[in-house]
Structures are given as C-alpha cells and as structure tokens.
C-alpha cells in the first residue's frame, strides 16, 4: 500500500523511471511495457495521470495507482510471455488490459471483462488511442461486458488472471476453474484492507495461495451493488 510522491512528474517515462528508482519496478520488461502504454490515455480528463495514487473513474470504480500496476505486472510476468492467454477482470479504463496485450503479443490472447458497459465503451476508446491499438484491430485483444466473477469461459483456460477488485472472502470458483494448470491468478481478497493473493495452479489442478502485500481495492461485486456503493 506504499504511495510514492510523483504528482509533479509530467511524462510517462519519468513516472516509470521514478518507480524504478524507488525499487518498485525491478523488471526490464515491465518498464518497457509501462513506458509504451501511456497512462495519460487511461485516466479521466483533468486528473494528474502520473500521480501514484488510485483515481476515481466514475461508477464507484477506480484505476489503481501506478505502483500497483507495476507490482501486478511483475507478479504475472512469467505468465504473460508471447503467445500466452490472459484475463483482466474488472478491466475498468483498459490500462492493464493493454499492458497484458503488449506482453503476450499478437500470437497471444487478452480478454478484459467489465460489468459497467459505459466503462467498456470508454476503455475501447482508450485502447485504440494507445500502442495496443493494432492488437485490438487484429482481434487478439478484446473487452466485454460481463460479470467478472464468472470470468470469460469462451477464451479459457488462461495462463494469467488478474482481478482488479477485492473478493470479500471466497475466490470465485469460476476463475479458479478457468485458470490453466501452471497458470497464476493475482486477486485481492478480504473486506476493508485486503491481502493481494497470488494463486498458482499446479499441473494436477491443486492450488497454492500466498499473500504478496496488503492492499485496498474496491469490492468485487454485482453491477447494481457497485453502482449503489454496497457489497453483494
């Protein structure tokens, strides 16, 4: 839950270097991807795009802070190699969806799922302005309206699953089912302050769970409950 003071930084590359200097980004690949996908294209107008803090994007949803994006990209890096398949649950403005797509490349597949249709529409607009636009046009990147707790079975199984909202207690069974043996899921779990859980599925289908850090995410809930600002 570390927050870095980078509000005065005015360029995407400077944001990435600042995160490198503070030891948040340790991977060359993550640096390259975060430099290529400009965060300014994925935050609301008139907000400081490179400030290291979550930002409200409407509909009781947020875009995570840059250091959280970097952390999650690094946790999933080995499962986001070219040709892999990834699912971004609660894809919001489309930022991590675009980052995933660059990492898996045109031979891979990335699916974003978001239950607020307005956010899906705006996230597609963001993506087509970004360096991930060719992957959207070629069809290896897609974003869909749906309940992220059910995943997106049409493109399963996934080598990597990221969940950008907190499960209250139980990890949605559909997401575990859609995770490929040998794959990894990163999901915050808990109410109020949560554990960022790293879930690895072994080849025999069993899972291991460890907590990476403590975090604060909006709840993984139904569309109606999210719009009302409640948990269900």
Secondary structure elements and their pairing?
Blueprint: H1 12-21, H2 28-36, E1 55-58, E2 61-63, H3 66-76, E3 85-89, H4 95-104, E4 109-114, H5 117-129, H6 133-138, E5 141-145, E6 158-163, H7 173-178, E7 179-189, E8 194-201, E9 207-215, H8 223-228
Parallel strand pairs: 3-4, 3-6, 4-5, 6-7
Antiparallel strand pairs: 1-2, 7-8, 8-9
Pfam family, one: PCMT
Protein name: Protein-L-isoaspartate O-methyltransferase
GO molecular function, one term: protein-L-isoaspartate (D-aspartate) O-methyltransferase activity
Can you walk through the features of this model?
- This protein has 232 residues and is an alpha/beta fold.
- It has 8 helices and 9 strands.
- The protein has helices at 12-21, 28-36, 66-76, 95-104, 117-129, 133-138, 173-178, 223-228, and strands spanning 55-58, 61-63, 85-89, 109-114, 141-145, 158-163, 179-189, 194-201, 207-215.
- The strands form 2 sheets. A 7-stranded mixed sheet has the order 5-4-3-6-7-8-9. A two-stranded antiparallel ribbon has the order 1-2.
- Helix 4 links the parallel strand 3 and strand 4 (109-114).
- The longest helix has 13 residues, at 117-129.
- The radius of gyration is 16 Å and the shape is globular.
- The relative contact order is 0.13.
- Keywords: Methyltransferase, S-adenosyl-L-methionine, Transferase.
- It comes from Erythroxylum novogranatense.
- One of its GO terms (molecular function) is protein-L-isoaspartate (D-aspartate) O-methyltransferase activity.
């Amino acid at each position: 839950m570390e927050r870095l003071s980078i509000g005065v930084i005015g360029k995407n590359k400077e944001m990435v270097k600042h995160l490198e200097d503070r030891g948040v980004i340790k991977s060359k690949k993550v640096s390259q991807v975060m430099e290529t996908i400009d965060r300014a294209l994925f935050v609301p107008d008139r907000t400081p795009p490179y400030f290291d803090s979550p930002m409200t994007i409407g509909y009781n949803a947020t875009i995570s802070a840059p250091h959280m994006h970097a952390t999650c990209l690094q946790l999933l890096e080995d499962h986001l190699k070219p040709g892999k398949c990834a699912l971004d649950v609660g894809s919001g403005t489309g930022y991590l969806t675009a980052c995933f797509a660059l990492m898996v490349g045109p031979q891979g597949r990335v699916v974003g799922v978001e239950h607020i249709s307005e956010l899906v529409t705006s996230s597609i607009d963001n993506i087509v302005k970004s360096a991930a636009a060719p992957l959207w046009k070629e069809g290896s990147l897609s974003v869909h309206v749906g309940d992220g707790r059910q995943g997106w079975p049409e493109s399963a199984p996934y080598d990597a699953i990221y969940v950008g909202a907190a499960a209250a207690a139980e990890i949605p069974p559909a997401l575990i089912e859609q995770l490929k043996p040998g794959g990894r899921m990163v999901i915050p779990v808990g109410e109020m302050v949560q554990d960022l859980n790293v879930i690895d599925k072994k080849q025999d289908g069993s899972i291991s769970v460890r907590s990476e850090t403590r975090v604060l995410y909006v709840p993984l809930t139904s569309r109606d409950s999210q719009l009302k600002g409640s948990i269900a």
